[in-house]
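Give me the fold.
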Amino acid sequence: MRRIRFAAIVAVCWLTTAPVISEAGTSDLLSGLVPGITEDEESGIYHGAFLGAYFGTYASAFAVLAEGAGNGSSKNLPWIAVGGALGLLLGGAAGYMVGREWPSEPTPARVCNRYDLVDPCPHQFQIEIQNMSGFTLPGSVTNAREFRSEAPNIHFNTIGLSSEQVPSIDLTYWLNELDAIHFRFRYFDMGGTGMLPRETFYNGRRMAPGPVQSTPFPWFSGGLYYERRLAPWYQSYESSWPSFLQGWDVRGRMGIEYNYIYFAFNHSRPNEEFYAQSMPLPIFGLVAYRRLNENFTLETSIEGYWINRWNSLRNEGGTVWASQNGGEAHLRLFYGNPAYLGPVQLMVGSFVYYYSQLEDSTEEGNFLKWGMAGLEYGLVFLF
């Protein structure tokens, strides 16, 4: 229950600020409260409030839940909401000052092409369906200690987890020409049959040498992100840059992501419920698009998350301390714009993905580290 309360606090602090990103439909709110406010000042308040709430929530959660910073005292949970609220106010004030001191130049009206990845229109909607198909990287292991029972690392390749398929769906809605809300859902199709060379233990259960199955076990991830195009900040300086740095549309991404992992052998036993201590993770990233010609667009992206020894708000023989980190990088090529494809763009690319989760208490000591690299392919629908 306490874990749910923490997740709700983080989600509410983040989500309650997201709607203010949209300048359409909310402009009357501030102009009614503050007569004479300019569009730049109003936009600065919206964006500053969102960023302040996001970083304020993360900073206060780190201070409250981290063993080193706040000694992980769960009784201080209300301070997470306080940090988000304070960040919202300070960020809004800072955004107002930025909008007042550095007003943006008026942008000329343009004809909006609704089938454009690089230069999206207000209210453009994107649906991306893709699959990452790859191989397990060296060093991918898992173990689960129960009290003081021996828990050696079990290598993924040993138990048949040598290749994976990761289908996903991404939904992106552009609030205006610069700001977007992005939702992602992934399913990690992992499993296989291997051979244990020697006796081992997992989650306190003995596993005899011989064949072992690690399929199927559920692994899902879901995330909600805010994206912001950064091009207006640097476009006026591009002419002095090297040619290979010009023409990129760079976007910042931040949000929250959650992983649900139930790792099981032989369909059910032994198993480890990694999801029980999993935390909602603050995630940061950069995405860059470059139009190569009329039909081809290049995308490169990198994103990651990190928490270290946070109170998971779960007690098993004492407080369970959770550490999670991960990241991914992509290089993709899109093909589109011919009349016969309409709003559809085809995508192929390559990727690297990494995930790690550690749970530690007097009773438990569970660890999962997994890396994957390979090719990806999919479709993007633009409306």
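The chain is about 20% helix and 45% strand.
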